[in-house]
Task: structure prediction
Amino acid sequence: MDVIAENKSHGGRQLVIRHAATTTQCDMTFALFLPPGEGPFPVLWYLSGLTCSHANVMEKGEYRQIAAELGVAVICPDTSPRGDHVPGGDPADWQFGQGAGFYVDATEAAYRDHFQMHSYIMHELPELVFAHYPLDSARQGIFGHSMGGHGAMVLALRNPGVFKSCSAFAPITQPSTAGWSQRAFSEYLGPDKAAWRAWDTVCLIEDGARVEALLVDQGDADAFLEEGLRPQLLAQACTDAGIDLTLRMQPGYDHSYFFISSFMADHLRWHARYL
Amino acid sequence: MDVIAENKSHGGRQLVIRHAATTTQCDMTFALFLPPGEGPFPVLWYLSGLTCSHANVMEKGEYRQIAAELGVAVICPDTSPRGDHVPGGDPADWQFGQGAGFYVDATEAAYRDHFQMHSYIMHELPELVFAHYPLDSARQGIFGHSMGGHGAMVLALRNPGVFKSCSAFAPITQPSTAGWSQRAFSEYLGPDKAAWRAWDTVCLIEDGARVEALLVDQGDADAFLEEGLRPQLLAQACTDAGIDLTLRMQPGYDHSYFFISSFMADHLRWHARYL
Result:
């Protein structure tokens, strides 16, 4: 484990850490913000969207001021395995491969050696950070943006009891039927779409998985709203399942970090109530 | 004038605008944040440091939440002229040329056609933005970081009455005697160091220029503190001149935007008292 950057910020410590991961068989980099104080701190996991690394939200997310105020640690993993030996390295295809792990554990032969992002984030990375930093594993929340909003909801739904809270910015609600995720699901999980349901928020809820509550912010000027995100599918599933969804359509906001940062403090305060 | 990006953020509008500038004889790009409301808004000019464009503070500065709350517009110009036809385009030399305009009006033949950043920011850019946006030219403040902290103080000292307030993050206090600015001063202003004094905060104060008050934050873990920044020179000059300097040494903070963003809200609140 190698701390490759450390900067004091808002009274706390913003770390960037690289380590050799066994689940993904490559070096992985993540960001960890520790608020001021001794801890142990509750932990908020932030999962980023397509094309992102740990750095996008660390630089543009504006989470440190409020996280420092609330005393919450924030961990921002990468979105996929990376490296010359990792398949899916075509930078022209931003919806597949490196930068587009979709937080699943791949089963197809071509990808299963590396694309194990669910296992990495649920098991390997927590074991690492809880062993080395003053973090409270009994108080964890999870949130994310777009593909990472999908990831946050899927991880919370698949792992009941681990996360006390879950929220999302502009999440992909049903990736198994959205154009920009179908290639990834097909190549990571195989052609049998029945297997895709276990990695899809709306399908998981339809099939009985539950979280207590969800907070979702969605810009109504988001270019991906109708084709890729479709919050109405999530709203219907939550209504049918009795999940307490707070869905806020935010007028004039798009899909960028200008949107995310505008509502970051709201999300952190919402999580802090559960943590 | 071409609005090349517009994003809603924190209830306001973050614009990026490109225009053909006559003072610098090239296309110039700047960022303009308009808070919610109709205006006219007071204006805060933020000048960035070496290597930066308008984008660094726009992405990492965390100014929008507090600017929206206070109802202040924030303008972030580029740090130099740019383009294939502009000299000083060697990316290996980050202390000179493109990205390193030092907010002076060059007098040397090789640079004076383009490196007119003082005139650009004091005259051409204000004329443009005040003509097109609901901004109040009677309520302007200026601040900046490192080379931009130097720029903010020099512009305030050289143009009495224009700016109601001035502050800086880790400013270069005496560029005429600092290693990283001497090449630029020499090539833009010529070998006669007497001419450099008119573009140097400490020298301007020594020579009689005044501002009412200054707020300066400086990290004590800043790698450039002793050689390049030297806040003690500013403190001595302000003491001798009777300028009300609030110099805050911030323990553990470095030279990065992790530092700047930590104290951005303090600076905006401080300016708002004068605007």
